[in-house]
């Protein structure tokens, strides 16, 4: 690596919501920058006005913020020394570089209309060849290489539409050094004369990307594999613009594959298999179609980042759970593989569960409290006042967190802590409610009533001796006790649950249950 200060950029085009593959690109750039004490820049590449989607830029910024991937410079994150960072606002900058390439003979004007290009395409297809504007076909097209200087000047002066194309040399090898893939060698016969500058006064992606990386002092270009075919063109542009000595190093990241490994992970896979492929919810501004996001599904950003970082990067040890600091410390592009990474929705859920369990009861209660309040708003008659206090909610979280993958499951798992059951698990009642239980529960109730404290260990003792008194095994009625308290056949630790509900509430629930079941 050269001794320049590391500067990397994430350069999305605002053409829709950011796919999780894009978030991974941003993440790897961020980790690489932080690891090397460098800068991470967010540049919005919006030169293709036809593909601009309103709201997409805001979405990108919000998604990065949610993930904790914070750029040092860039759109939405404060100006740095190279502002503006939105390419549409840098429009004036690019023209001079297109002119420089024309002057040095590495680019030319092309006047072909859409209809003429179409016509050529059809003729080539008829001859069973595919059309590309290249060293051979350019000789039959309308451009400043085939027209006289005079004619060219006249057309430009008359305001005729034109584009500027790169003049790809004949039969040369272009070598791209990729940190992940090694040397990638392409012969220029495989390349076409890509458009660099369009008649609307805007550069294309290729020119703007290279010019901005140069001006913004980018040292490493870390981006998705889909841009690998563009890299030889970019290398030529650096060369022709005289910037080869400061050309960034390249690293093209592997594709994200479908869970079965067959092909690229697409939005449709997410819909089909029931997992989001976007960080945040997105509503298409035109079709109004909704796509779900990890945030709204209840994933924590830590879990999301943790699963994402492992799609392509392999740590040196067996560690699976990483804080952002640990990732910064351990990340290296050398440990990114070149083969595609299979997306694993189950693993993603596992990560969320892991992070959920690591949270303190207090943190969980803060997130659960609004959910409790919203649910209780509709069911006030069932609720005692003290259970709305945060300490109570904290203790509930403590008892139910092991059962959940997501905070938004807490209510369905533990609503009985707030609302007394009115229904009882029918299958269990059918199987277990019998004369023995009819005999046992009134005894239990009396014994509970006479307790002074109400600690779970004491309740357990009282429970066992009541069973003895009634002449039955405690195990026979344990599950029924649970069902009378919660309505459910399984749930949080039984005696702890009783302790938290409190003596009065437990007795009330037993009484109500006995009336209903006897
Ligand atoms: N604008 C390109 C994109 O949308 C950026 C590719 C690059 O990083 O060079 O992904």
What is the fourth-level CATH superfamily of the largest domain?
A: HUPs
| Shape summary | elongated
Strand percentage lies at 5-15%
End-to-end distance: 79 Å
Low-confidence blocks of residues: none
Rg on CA atoms, Å: 33 Å
The fold-level CATH name of the largest domain is Rossmann fold
Count of DSSP-assigned helices:
21
**How is the quaternary structure best described?**
single chain
CATH architecture of the largest domain: 3-Layer(aba) Sandwich
What is the average per-residue confidence, as pLDDT, rounded to a whole number?
94
Task: Give an account of the 3D structure.
The structure is a single chain. With 518 residues, this protein is mainly alpha-helical. The chain folds into four domains: 1-73 and 254-358, HUPs (Rossmann fold, 3-Layer(aba) Sandwich), CATH 3.40.50; 92-179 and 183-195, Glutamyl-tRNA Synthetase, Domain 3 (Glutamyl-tRNA Synthetase, domain 3, Alpha-Beta Complex); 359-411, no CATH class; 426-517, Arc Repressor Mutant, subunit A (Orthogonal Bundle). The chain is 44% helix and 10% strand. The protein contains 21 helices and 14 strands. It has helices spanning 20-35, 56-67, 91-103, 114-126, 149-157, 205-215, 231-240, 267-273, 294-297, 301-309, 324-330, 345-358, 361-376, 390-400, 410-414, 426-432, 435-449, 456-470, 474-486, 494-501, 503-517, and strands at 7-10, 39-42, 73-74, 107-110, 163-166, 173-178, 182-187, 195-197, 220-224, 249-253, 256-257, 282-283, 290-291, 341-342. The strands form six sheets. It has a three-stranded parallel β-sheet. A three-stranded antiparallel β-sheet has the order 4-5-8. The N and C termini lie far apart (79 Å).
């Amino acid at each position: 690596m050269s001794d320049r200060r590391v500067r990397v950029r994430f350069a999305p085009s605002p053409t829709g919501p950011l796919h999780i593959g894009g978030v991974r690109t941003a993440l790897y750039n961020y980790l690489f920058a932080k690891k090397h004490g460098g800068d991470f820049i967010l540049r919005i590449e919006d030169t293709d006005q036809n593909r601009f989607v309103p709201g997409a830029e805001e979405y990108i910024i919000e998604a990065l913020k949610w993930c904790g991937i914070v750029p040092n410079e860039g759109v939405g994150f404060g100006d740095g020394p190279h502002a503006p960072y939105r390419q549409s606002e840098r429009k004036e900058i690019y023209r001079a570089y297109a002119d420089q390439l024309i002057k040095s003979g590495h680019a030319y004007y092309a006047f072909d209309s859409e209809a003429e290009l179409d016509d050529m395409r059809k003729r080539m297809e008829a001859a069973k060849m595919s059309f590309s504007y290249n060293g051979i076909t350019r000789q039959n097209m309308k451009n400043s290489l085939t027209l006289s200087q005079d004619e060219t000047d006249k057309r430009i002066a008359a305001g005729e539409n034109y584009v500027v194309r790169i003049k790809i040399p004949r039969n040369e090898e272009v070598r791209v050094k990729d940190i992940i893939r090694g040397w990638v060698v392409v012969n220029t016969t495989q390349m076409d004369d890509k458009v660099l500058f369009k008649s609307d006064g805007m550069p294309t992606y290729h020119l703007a990307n290279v010019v901005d990386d140069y001006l913004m002092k980018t040292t490493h270009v870390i981006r998705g594999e889909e841009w690998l075919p563009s890299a030889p063109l970019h290398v030529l542009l650096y060369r022709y613009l005289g910037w080869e000595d400061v050309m960034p190093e390249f690293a093209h990241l592997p594709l994200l594959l479908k869970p079965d490994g067959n092909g690229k992970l697409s939005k449709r896979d997410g819909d089909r298999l029931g997992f989001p492929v976007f960080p945040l919810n997105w509503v298409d501004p035109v079709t109004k179609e909704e796509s779900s996001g990890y945030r709204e599904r209840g994933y924590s950003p830590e879990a999301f980042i943790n699963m994402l970082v492992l799609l392509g990067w392999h740590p040196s040890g067996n560690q699976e759970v990483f804080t952002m600091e640990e990732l910064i410390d351990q990340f290296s592009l050398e440990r990114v593989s070149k083969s595609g990474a299979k997306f694993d929705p189950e693993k993603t859920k596992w990560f969320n569960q892991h992070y959920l369990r690591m949270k303190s009861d207090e943190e969980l209660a803060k997130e659960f409290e609004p959910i409790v309040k919203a649910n209780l708003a509709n069911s006030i008659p069932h609720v005692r006042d003290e259970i709305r206090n945060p300490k109570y909610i904290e203790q509930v979280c403590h008892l139910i967190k092991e059962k959940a993958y997501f905070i938004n499951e807490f209510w369905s798992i533990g609503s009985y802590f707030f609302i007394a059951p009115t229904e009882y698990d029918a299958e269990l009642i059918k199987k277990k409610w019998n004369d023995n239980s009819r005999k046992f529960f009134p005894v239990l109730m009396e014994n509970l009533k006479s307790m002074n404290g109400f600690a779970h260990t004491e309740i357990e003792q009282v429970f066992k001796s009541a069973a003895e008194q009634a002449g039955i095994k405690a195990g026979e009625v344990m599950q029924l006790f649970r069902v009378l308290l919660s309505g459910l056949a399984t749930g949080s630790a039984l005696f702890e649950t009783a302790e938290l509900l409190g003596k009065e509430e437990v007795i009330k629930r037993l009484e109500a249950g006995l009336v209903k079941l006897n």
